[in-house]
Amino acid sequence: MRAAFMTGVDAVEVREDVAPPELDPAGAVLRVEAC
Question: Sign of the C-alpha dihedral, residues 10, 7, 24, 18?
């Protein structure tokens, strides 16, 4: 699996050897913050 990580301001690192995320079958709650 491939994933992109923000490593800093205007910096993104793409990694190829990332394990798939473990998902809860009941669903997910997303956290949203505004500034």
Answer: positive
pTM of the entire structure? Answer: 0.41
Rounded to whole angstroms, how far apart are CA atoms 31 and 26? 16
Q: What is the pLDDT of residues 1-35, one digit of tens each?
A: 788 888 889 899 998 988 887 877 777 777 778 77
The counts of H helices and E strands in the chain are 0, 2
Residue of 22, 26, 6, 25 lying closest to 14 (CA atoms): 6
Task: Classify 3 in phi/psi space as left (phi over 0), alpha (psi -120 to 50) or beta.
Answer: beta
